[in-house]
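Q: My hope is that you can spare some time for a protein that puzzles me. Underneath my words sits a plain record pairing an amino acid chain with its backbone structure tokens. Those tokens are not coordinates but codes from a learned vocabulary of shapes. Thank you; the sequence and its tokens follow:
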Amino acid sequence: MRPIAIVAAGAVSPLGRGEQATAVGAPGERPSSLVTDDPALARGGLKKPRTARVPALLLPPEGDRARSLLALAMRELVTELEVELPAWRSRRLGVLVGTSAGGMPSLERALAVHAAGGTVDGDLARASFYDGPLEVLSQAFGHAARVVNVLGACAASTLALGLGARMLEAGDVDLVVAGGYDALCAFLAVGFEALGATTARTPLPFQSARDGMALGEGAALVALVRAADLGERHARHGYVLGFGATSDATHVTAPDPTGKGLAAAAVAALADASLPASAVDVVSAHATATLHNDSAEAHALASIFGARLASVTVHPFKAVIGHTLGAAGALEALATLGALRHGILPAGPPHGALDASFHGRLLDENQRGEAARCLKLSAAFGGTNAALVLGTGPGGVAVPRPRRRVVRLVEGPRVTTPDLDLLARRTRLDEVRRARLERASALAVTAVARALEMLEPLAPATTGVVVGTVAASLEANELFDVRRREAGVSVEPRRFPATSPNLPAGVCSIAFDFRGPSFAVGGGPLPMEEAFALATELVAAGDAEHVVVVSCDDVGPTTRMLAGSARVELPEDGAQAVVLGPAG
């Protein structure tokens, strides 16, 4: 791909706001973790109430916390944009914002009001949708901008940056604002603790004693333009040089233990950048410090770099600011790029014995060093993987991606009832998995199975899934929240994965062994329009040979209640799949 310049950024994290939000410290400095005991979660009964919160003085005391974080990052970004690109408002603008939980803090309050027999007011109802916090963006960007809500869970903002680069390369827009956000709330903390994914101490990425992650929160937005449009000017924050996305197609919460999917995303990003792995000296790792994720990532790194991995610096930023979910990819990318610009090889908090499967270079203190490029890795619920190659300069020879014309190959029927018999015949899901499907995923897989009956088999390794949804997982969220109110923190682990809006896309990839890019987009009146646009771009740019686009909404009492209170149009219940491919 041709280089994409990061001309401005705005961020907020437990470290602070602006450049401080992603600062790694000076050479010789030993980073310390900001993960501490969380009094609010401890009062709620959590056994492992360890989090990293944004300083209270940065946020208003009232209102939706996710909305406030996103608004703060937006203001920081606009301040930089006015300096770096004064005429930015005259450009064709695209906005891609990733999230794992969206308006969850507001939804948590709305569900509590409703459970108590109260009436949810319109403002709270509107803020409770997955795109609720995005209303703040209209303050800066107006309503003319093309806005995409990327529901890619923990890989959401990495996907947003990569998809934004594709939009610019295609010439669809002249300026992209991309990034992600997520806020801490009890709903998420209980869910991750129920999964056994959290720690009672400081996270220990890639260490043999690691036992889990700690949640963080934050937001990060960057402004992207084609590097060629800057002329002789240098981008303030660096460059996106390559992008790749894949799916594990193995499990909804656990990664492929071999790390093959994540490695494939990295290989695709390096090929996109026309660079060998030997051109990369630093990795911004996903590094959740969970037993299985770190092991899978360690295997992926070994596959990518081979014996040279011992000299590659691995940066585990989540150990400092916690796992910020939808904001993680963008915050971590800015942190590592900032270190490289200042001639620093970034460290993580002091570590002990490393896991036997990890062969990278994990530093206890920041070191001086010249590195021009880094590889950003992200993974997520549903088996979604995304990778970016980032650089302090535009790189060497810019190779534009060849473009292909894209056509609809087939449009399947709309389904409103899951067909488990069809899934038994047409998918890889065993009886237990079929029985445990929540309704949204069951609808999506049924719709895809119906569409695929009309086609010759698609190549699994190069087929992706993009789901467009308005309601996303609102019904599953209500079911989880009811159980949370009944059982406190003792919620069954299997109930939490269904609350991920990315789950239907992941389940479709597992059901049909599709290992191309998979994620969801959602919220607002036209999610399918955006799903089609992004899926078309993935096929046109060669990120996938085929993409199955799925319209999917599980419309139950919770969605109807919120839509009625917010006075927004109710989505159509059911699912439908369309298969896109290259012409000819």
Q: What stands out?
A: The chain has a mean pLDDT of 95. The domain at 406-582 is CATH 3.40.47.10 (Peroxisomal Thiolase; Chain A, domain 1). The longest strand covers residues 4-13. The first helix runs from residue 39 to 43.
